[in-house]
Amino acid sequence: MKELLAAVIFFTRLPLWRVCQLPAEAFKNVVPYWSYVGWLTGGIMALTYIAASVLFPMSIALILAILSRLLLTGALHEDGLADFCDGFGGGRDDRDRILAIMKDSHIGTYGVIGLIIYYMTCYMCLLEMPAWLVPAILIGGDAWSKFCSAQIINFLPYARKENEAKNKTVYDRMTVRLFCLSFIGGALPLLFLPVEMLPALVLPAITSALMILTMRRRIGGYTGDCCGATFLISELSFYAGTLIILQFSPVI
To answer: Which of 15, 41, 51, 65 lies at 20 to 30 Å from 74 by C-alpha?
Structure first.
């Protein structure tokens, strides 16, 4: 329970830290509970979309849904994506330079372009989906993509020293129990999806694997920014996979 609360505190801006004093050790195991935080963030997006759809067209409802998660997380993952694009785009094959750029709080050209392309693609993917399917896609895609992205800590070491981490925490690798727990958190929301959509789940897993391989080759590990970037790109691949299936399943 402490680790779950720590995960909510870490991955959102909910002020639970004011009422829950948790030991520092609890934050070393927040990543396995990341998929459960996806229930909250994806659920807020879905509820916002449903509520906004009553008053606005789908295009506006989607913007408000995306905005709701931004406000809930404080753009935590988007900051990671921007830093990742800047580091891997501008650092070439120099490991130390890539890490130095990602640690810089300023955003560069690659980061701006990365965020623009990400949001354009994300928005257009969701806009092309049937309106009734969007809430299930938002919840399922969020939780499942966070489970897939969480595997980064099982396959890579932390790329910096612990005292150089932005949050001064290096995550522990998952035990078998925590892996199973994380999988359940990522898989349960998928029950809201039509069975025909399940093949789309392969793409976030493949995307996360490719991201992990890229990080291993370029910097020999991962950082917190890499986690955020992997999640958003994996989630985007889930949206893309869903659209591909819809193209060949008109009945849905």
So the answer is: 51
| Tokens read off for 123 | 């928005």
Q: What is the pLDDT along the chain (252 residues), one digit of tens a residue?
A: 788 888 898 999 988 767 777 777 777 889 999 999 999 999 999 999 999 999 999 999 999 999 999 999 999 999 999 999 999 998 888 899 999 999 888 899 999 999 999 999 999 999 999 999 999 999 999 999 999 999 999 999 998 776 556 555 678 889 999 999 999 999 999 999 999 999 999 999 999 999 999 999 999 999 999 999 999 999 999 999 999 999 887 655
Q: Which of 37, 40, 43 is nearest to 11 (CA)?
A: 37
Please give the structure tokens belonging to residue 248: 């060949």
CB 2 within 8 A of CB 17: no
